[in-house]
Design goal:
Length: about 280
């Protein structure tokens, strides 16, 4: 049996041109009457790219209308949130919109698939979107994979990423490592070991195969002394790691001297940590 491709059967939900027999209305809607989609899995919109899009729209006009749905006498975006944000920079009062009559599960599926197909989501956002879809509609993994037209194994692999520590999930969202690098980390015994391995993968720029090999030898190559850490030290490291959302090492000697190592993999992350410390 041939597997359905992602999004098959929901083209009418995410398309800017609905079929003749679908419930639709093309209208000019006041910008202030439109709200972001509450089921939008995409968390971050690059301000600079929004400005670039605004310049493009200012020169070429709005080529395609946004797509919205109506609920409780309000309009919510389904497709085109970047365009909606861009025209706000241009001080437009109205925006052309295709109004569709959809159920909640159709809205959630359409939003998630629209983002995946346009490659706008990172793996964590996809995983969170799938998890939200399952919770809101009481879907099993089997039902969710059927609705999305997504291979069951692929869907399960996305959801497994949500079990990773926050700092590693942030690393995936930042592009510091791929899902292929991250999944083997789940074979380790605890979050602290995952964070140590994550740091090694990023620092050494390991490939996926090298990362998998590291996981297999992780406990074999560590010295006995490095496997046992003072409970208080471990507790402080874990608390600091969660606070900064990145790996933190606490090193000290019996004399009381020591240091705190806060890891970062790129300048944006350093700036975030610096601002947290300096409260700027």
């Amino acid at each position: 049996m041939k597997r359905k491709v992602l999004g098959k059967g929901i083209e009418a939900i995410i398309s800017n041109r609905a079929p003749e027999n679908s419930a639709k209305t093309l209208a000019e809607i006041n910008i202030e009457d439109i709200y972001p989609n509450p089921f939008q899995p995409r968390k971050v919109f690059d301000p600079e790219k929004i400005k670039e899009l605004a310049l493009s729209i200012n020169e070429a006009g709005m080529i395609q209308p946004v797509v919205v749905y109506r609920k409780d006498d309000k309009y919510f975006l389904l497709v085109g949130e970047r365009r909606w944000r861009a025209v706000q920079h241009l001080k437009w009062e109205t925006i052309p919109a295709l109004v569709k009559d959809l159920s909640i599960d159709e809205i959630m599926i359409g939003t998630l698939v629209e983002n995946i197909q346009r490659e706008n989501l990172n793996a964590i956002e996809i995983a969170e979107g799938v998890e939200l879809l399952m919770k809101k509609n009481d879907f099993t993994q089997e039902k969710a994979s059927e609705k999305l037209g997504m291979n069951r194994v692929t869907l399960t692999n996305y959801l497994r990423l949500l079990k990773l520590p926050p700092a590693i999930k942030q690393g995936i969202m930042n592009g510091d490592l791929s899902p292929g690098h991250a999944r083997p980390l789940l074979s380790l015994n605890n979050p602290d070991d995952m964070l140590r391995a994550f740091s090694t993968i990023v620092d050494r720029k390991l490939s996926v195969r090298q990362s998998e090999a590291l996981m297999k030898s992780f406990y074999k190559t560590r010295s006995p002394s490095s496997r046992i850490k003072d409970p208080d030290q471990q507790k402080i490291e874990t608390k600091l790691t969660r606070f900064f959302s990145t790996k933190v090492n606490l090193l000290y000697s019996k004399s009381g001297k020591g240091k705190i190592e806060i890891h970062f993999s790129k300048l944006d992350e350093f700036e975030r940590i610096y601002n947290m410390i300096c409260k700027e």
